[in-house]
Amino acid sequence: MASSRPPRESSVTPGRSRPEADYEHIDDDVCRSFQRSVEIVGKKWTAAVLMAAMRGDRRFVDYRARITGISNQMLSQRLRELEGHQLIERIVVPTTPVQITYRPTEQGASLMRVLHPLIEWSANNEAMDT
């Protein structure tokens, strides 16, 4: 469903492209889907958990050691949420005692590949945090 808003007047110099022009074709359903994705990834600690998964952490204690400052409760919550969004897979290893490991799904790895330019952008614009 395309937006029915009238076009805005441009203050861009003639001959120069408008930065928003590349996004005008995106319909409202895609915008809502994008918003949901950003809200998932933008939750506190989610990016750190995904990054730890991509770096090879598998057990809960590995995640706790990698992610400074996250509580056990918050880590459990984020792992459950990411599993619910099919970004991380929870694997129960039937040993004694039972072992539970986590790993990124293909969908989670795909998301991290898309986010990689943002990681680089963040590293190059670190001064924004101060």
Task: Describe the structure in your own words.
It is elongated and about 60 Å long. The chain has a single domain, classed as Winged helix-like DNA-binding domain superfamily/Winged helix DNA-binding domain (Arc Repressor Mutant, subunit A). It has five helices and two strands; from the N terminus they run ααααββα. It has a two-stranded antiparallel ribbon. Helices cover 48% and strands 9% of the residues. The chain is mainly alpha-helical.
Relevant terms:
mainly alpha, two-stranded antiparallel sheet, Arc Repressor Mutant, subunit A, 5 helices, 130 residues
Q: How many helical stretches?
A: 5
- Rounded to the nearest angstrom, the distance between the terminal CA atoms is 41 Å
Helix content: 40-55%
Structural class: mainly alpha
Largest sheet: 2 strands, antiparallel
CATH domain topology: Arc Repressor Mutant, subunit A
Total count of strands? 2
In short:
With 130 residues, this protein is mainly alpha-helical. It has helices spanning 28-42, 46-54, 60-66, 72-84, 106-124; strands at 88-93, 99-104.
Question: How would you summarize the topology of this molecule?
Answer:
Layout: H1 28-42, H2 46-54, H3 60-66, H4 72-84, E1 88-93, E2 99-104, H5 106-124
Antiparallel strand pairs: 1-2
